[in-house]
Amino acid sequence: MLNHIFSPSSFLTKREGVMDSLFYLVGNSQRLGESSLFKIVPLISCSLLGLLTLACLAGFTAFRAKFRPKGYSLPPGSFGWPLVGETLIRQRLGQLGKPEEYIKRRRLLYGKDIFKTSLLLQPVAVVCGPAANKFLFSNENKLVVTWWTKSIQNVFPSSVLTSRGLHARPIKKLLTAFLKPEALQSYVGTMDSITQSFMETEWEGKEEIMVFPLLKLHSFVMASRIFTTIQDPNIVQNLTQQFHVLMDGIIEIPLNIPGTRYYRAMRARDVICRDLLSVIKQRRVALSAGTVSPTHDLLTSLLSTADENGRFLTEKEITDNILLLLFSAHGTTSSTIAMLMRYLAEMPHIYEEILREQIGIAASKAPGELLDWKDIRQMKYSWNTTCEVLRLSPPIEGTFREAITDLTYGGFDIPKGWKLFWSVHSSHKNPEYFPEPEKFDPSRFDGDGPAPYTYVPFGGGPRRCPGYEYARLEIMVFLHNLVKRFRWEPVFPNEKIKVDPLPVPVQGFPIRLRPR
Ligand code: HEM
Fold it and tell me: Which amino acid positions bind heme, per UniProt (predicted)?
């Protein structure tokens, strides 16, 4: 519909015609003289008004056709305010630290596990619970495809995140080959040594620290080391600063105008890509000289491995995907560790249990020996506790899919082109699957753990998070080094958490450290 409105043969050509006349009049106004100008000004105003009316009419017709198509039995719900829909209400609840309230209230109001709304300028069907998760995760590329906002698409244009349908498969396979447990096993020691030196320089000997910025820095240094082997402190520092700007503006309205946060984010993106590109070029030279092995890090793997069709990724594709992984690894794990530290400060009995497990592992190592894969496998209670943190405070609340055909779910029609949103909380906080859902209880993950599709912090189906194992290793290695060295207490025990879009402590999570 929108494509039709803006097709050259319709609206656009008419609009260009009017614009041409305007430019002609303005361009010739001097020759026409002052008196003629008086006649022209009202004429210009009328034309502009006409244009505006035309644009509004076209917009309204397109909006109606998209949001209220005829002949469909749409889910219950409200599209909220014109244009903004319910986007601001949802954002506000996130900033108040109650993101799940948005869906909870509407489920109660409409009495269904599905409701319609308007978010991010799109008509959206929000679908809730494990049945919805199963439906979406198992119908990727059949009924739905992944969908991200324009601002995200612009930041990662040729990455696995924004490639849809069968285009995504080869890139995802290449990334998964590097991120699968067998491949990551050999990096546990490196992760341990990075974390140890980080603790020595940034934590030890300090009485009080601001944890959240430090966690982000740690995650970033770790990811850039494991994925690209970038160690030059100047490059790392520059990249860290640019990533900060990027994170700050990435979910803004994509207005690429100087002065906006989005504009600054896109400039930061250009700087990061330029730095990554120069590393890629150096690595290519090193690869052909045989001074690095093809499995040296993710970057060299991507440079030297062809996909399943025998095609090598272009430098732009490699840059975009490395940028994506650095970005994904940066926010999610630091948010999880911050939330984990908060829960542990509140529940000393769980801290003690984790400490017992980690001290047991440390005692089995020779002095100076680094952690390895076998040690990670023994961190069962520590990981169950982290899973419970991810259940209650997931870094990602859910993601969108787009209907690639008209479809039916829960007895309602979802028109082609509509977006569907699956939500983590609607399963994680359901007492049917997690009795007393607000209670913190790591034993939920003993044995076989939760039923399929009820526990989904990493999503599911073909789009499931490929960084799952990497995140597990990073968090476990960090926790080991943390509890071995410190106890801690938050400076502000009731510090607010805002979800914007990830859960973050609003005051940066200052803590007092007590060495063990
Ligand atoms: C606690 C940490 C993490 C959580 C909870 C998490 C969660 C998620 C979720 C919910 C999705 C969307 C899945 C879907 O739409 O079905 C996702 C996608 C993704 N994640 Fe993670 N993630 C984490 C860490 C990481 C890390 C460390 C990396 C990189 C090493 C990573 C890379 C990605 C990528 C590339 C995608 C896009 C996959 C695709 O669209 O096919 N994530 N993640």
Answer: 465
3-state SS of 211-248 is HHHHHHHHHHHHHHHHHHCCCCHHHHHHHHHHHHHHHH
Q: What is the rounded CA–CA span in Å between residue 2 and residue 198?
A: 52
Task: Kindly list the distances between the CA atom of residue 125 and the CA atoms of 297, 306, 427, in Å, as whole numbers in the listed order.
Answer: 41, 39, 16
| Nearest ligand 1 atom, CA 396 | 10
Which pTM was predicted? 0.88
Identify which of 478, 443, 495 has the alpha carbon closest to the alpha carbon of residue 194.
478
Between CA 401 and CA 66 the distance in angstroms is 16
Is 178 buried (19+), middle (13-18) or exposed (0-12) by CB count in 10 A? buried
pLDDT band at 36 (very low <50, low <70, confident <90, very high): low
Cβ of residue 163 lying under 6 Å from some atom of ligand 1 = no
Residues 342-361 have a mean pLDDT of 98
Count how many Cα atoms sit within 13 Å of the Cα of residue 351 in the half-sphere of its side chain. 18
For residue 303, what are the CA distances in angstroms to 157, 289, 308, 465, 484?
19, 14, 14, 22, 39
Give the tens place of pLDDT for each residue, 64-81: 778 889 999 999 999 999
* Strand partners for 498: 504
E strands, 392-433, are 398-403, 407-409, 412-414, 419-423
* Backbone φ, ψ for residue 371 (5° rounding): -65, 150
User: Is 465 marked as a binding-site residue?
Assistant: yes
Distance 439 CA to ligand 1 centre (A): 26
> At 264, which amino acid appears?
R
Q: What angle do CA 459, 115, 165 make, to 5 degrees?
A: 40
Q: How far is the CA of 284 from the centre of ligand 1 (A)?
A: 28
